[in-house]
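Suppose a classmate hands you a notebook page containing two proteins, each written out with its sequence and a corresponding row of structure tokens. How would you begin to make sense of it? This section walks through that situation. The first entry is reproduced here exactly as it would appear on such a page.
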Amino acid sequence: MRKSLLVLLLWAPFATALIPPPGPRLDHTTQQAIQRFLLHNRIFDSPQDLDNAPYIIAAGAGRVLGANDERVHARGNLDPSQPIYGIFRRGKAYTDPRTQELLGVNADDIGTARFITAGDLSTLAVQRITQEIRPGDRLLRAPSAIALERLDAAQPGPFIEGTIIDIPKGVTQIGVLDAVTLNKGRRDGLVEGQVLSVIKTGASVRDVLTGALVKLPDARAGTLLVFRTYEKLSYGLVLKASQPLAVQDRFETAAKHNE
């Protein structure tokens, strides 16, 4: 018995070393950043998908604006069991920077409303607005929750490279816990939980002695976690950044380079 116990104790460090390391640890702050972002940001694979959503006709007194707790009327397939709807408006269309293919459409966050009554004209009470509500604004149910344990457990996939094409919150420089839009999605093999390296293209400088242009080496500048995938686009969250990141920076899966 003692000999068996001794063997187990001696073997334990080696057995532990054989266990693959876990994926990126999602602390509470990171989880909150992901869930908060998804409440107010949405992508549709085509404009028609957004155009088929329920829409607002007018506010309570026939006006266009909806202030907090004001009633708005809407048409479309609204589910009375869904207590809260997001109010969205068609935003920018995303195209691939190389092929110009339409990749999807962003839905801009306008606010939220609470469901009150159903009918040919359903009634909702406005809870939050970021700007004036207009007729034609779309009502979207809450997005499906992300299985955070899946983000931690995702395995490396095939080598994929692409480009950061947008910063949804509208800033120009990207830092830690900022979300970005990527020009690759499910069809390209990206899965939620994958970790990507961000590559900044080396600048071209002029050699002061020869006058020739010299391209500086590309440099790894940060790490992204893919947390929501669509057919042709994805959202990534910046986990690390050694310098400010920006739109047009490249990314690649960690299969080619080890961090």
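The notebook's second entry, a different protein, reads as follows.
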Amino acid sequence: MALTLNEEQTMLRDSAREFLQQRAPVQHLRSLRDDESATGMCADLWREMTELGWPAIAIDESDGGLGFGFTGLGIVLQETGRTLTPSPLLTSAMMSAAAIRHGASATQRETWLPDIAAGQSILVPACDEQTRHNPEAIETRIENHGGELKLTGARRHVPDGMAADAFLVSARNEEGDIVLVRVAANATGLAREPVRLLDTHIGAHLRFDAISLSADDVLGGPGDRSATLHHLLDTGVIGQSAELLGVASEAFERTLNYLRERKQFGVPIGSFQALQHRAADLCNDLELGTSLVLHALHRLDQPGGGNELPSLSETASMTKARLAAIAMRATAEAIQMHGGIGMTDEFDIGFFYKRARILETLLGDRHFHLDRFARLRGY
């Protein structure tokens, strides 16, 4: 497995970087925050991303997509990490699309995936009821009332929750099994409350009050539906890791530029040996992180190797734990090396630390995934 980009992937990375630097620099995030955007994202920018085909990258051609794979979408997510661009690429085009491909019926695939690929439907997973990630702690219930399915429960801190057209919600059925159900954002009985996260992105708290569902809203048929939930989460964790790599890489490069420009005692501070050593350590970490992310993305595109070691779940947790640590270190070091100016809101570097902190926490922090990796390996 080559841990390098081929020519097509390199072209995708370069075109995505050019587009985002021009259309969605960090100032774009500032504008959304200062204008108090209701959804936390720009509809015009999302339309342009759709015209570029980004939501269709990881979806098969037979389902209305481009068939470029999760590696291609991960490359784009790395670039959105560099510019801190809010979009539903991770939640809808990667996580929900992966869950549908993994566990949906043929009819559901034909109905849902083309709309996601075309950017016409933003389908967002809603899998956590608690502040800390614990996908098995599910009190939300789907029950049969006189032949009609009813969903009751709540979700907290759902990313892109105010921009979503529909949600993929994990719930327990009357047998206690985990199922995933699709809930329209305008469904009667659904209440959404916006919540601004530390990184200025907008999430949502959801409450489901006896929402009526049909059997067609339940993902897949009889069987181990919890496997689809775990596949959705593993895919999201790997996508987060790609974005974390972009956040860390951009923070590191901005810091290197600052070390070359800032002078003390008549010389650039980058000439100080102590700072050089810290920068060299970060460079090594980022090289390791790049290899881990590419390996994990390749595993998503080659799901047939289920008996390989490590498993996809092990790979996802290993990658998230390492990339979270790398990104937190890179962004914290960036603020320290910038000195006092790094603490100000007027300077961009602090936004990278905040985004890294949120990405580290969502879908489980590094400690959660270190523990999960150990348990998966039998410790």
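A careful reader of the second entry would note: The two ends are 28 Å apart (CA to CA).
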